[in-house]
């Protein structure tokens, strides 16, 4: 039996347009972040179909009416969490590109750090699960994998790699497939090892000139 008062999930600070629109007061921003954190926790744990707005309100420590004040329905919550998921990945990609100008190292870091986020970041876990369940959610969600694939393609284009687009598609498919299998079989405990295998097989370290 779960505890009567489970610990509240950490807040998710809104960074996208969905998180900022119409919110000018600090209290409203904090409340919205608290709701998003609770929604991410619920979606990651139970999946969209099984979660209710009441579940999210209880996790956030507020009334269902307070949740509805900021989000009109469960679909809007799913969209907001998914937007934050992609915004977080975009920030991660930008930071890696700034810190690792070598394309091969940038790709290695992108997959490795994203794998670590899948292990440790509830928002990332929720976003990935919502994308898998997108056909069950009655709202438009961003098309998955496109930006990730394009980023890797752009980086490989700056190298002498003969097939940047093909390799980027294979890397993306292998990585997200591996994270799903790792989640299903081992609760993602082995995802970093599976990522290393993917990189070693598909993108081996180039020879030193």
UniProtKB/TrEMBL annotation:
Keyword Protein biosynthesis in annotation: no
GO molecular function, one term: transcription cis-regulatory region binding
Keywords: DNA-binding, Transcription, Transcription regulation
UniProt feature, compositional bias: Pro residues: 1-12
Annotated segments matching region Disordered: 1-23
NCBIfam families on file: ScbR_bind_reg (NF041196)
DNA-binding region: 52-71
Residue ranges constituting the HTH tetR-type domain according to the UniProt record: 29-89
UniProt-listed PROSITE patterns: HTH_TETR_2
Protein name as annotated: TetR family transcriptional regulator
InterPro entries, sorted: ArpA-like, Homeodomain-like_sf, HTH-type_TetR-like_transc_reg, HTH_TetR, Tet_transcr_reg_TetR-rel_C_sf
């Amino acid at each position: 039996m779960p505890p009567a008062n489970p610990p509240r999930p950490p807040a998710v600070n809104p960074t996208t347009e969905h998180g900022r629109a119409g919110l000018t007061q600090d209290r409203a921003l904090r409340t919205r972040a608290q709701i998003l954190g609770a929604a991410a926790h619920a979606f990651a744990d139970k999946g969209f179909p099984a979660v209710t707005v009441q579940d999210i309100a209880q996790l956030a420590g507020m009334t269902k009416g307070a949740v509805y004040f900021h989000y009109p329905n469960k679909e809007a919550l799913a969209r907001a969490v998914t937007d934050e998921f992609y915004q977080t990945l975009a920030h991660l990609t930008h930071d890696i590109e700034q810190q690792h100008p070598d394309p091969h190292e940038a790709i290695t870091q992108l997959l490795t750090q994203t794998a670590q986020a899948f292990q440790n970041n509830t928002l990332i876990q929720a976003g990935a699960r919502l994308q898998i369940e997108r056909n069950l959610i009655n709202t438009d969600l961003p098309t998955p994998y496109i930006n990730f694939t394009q980023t890797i393609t752009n980086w490989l284009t700056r190298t002498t790699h003969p097939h940047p687009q093909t390799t980027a598609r294979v890397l993306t498919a292998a990585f997200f497939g591996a994270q799903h299998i790792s989640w299903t079989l081992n609760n993602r405990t082995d995802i970093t090892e599976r990522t290393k295998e993917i990189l070693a097989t598909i993108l081996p370290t180039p020879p030193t000139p």
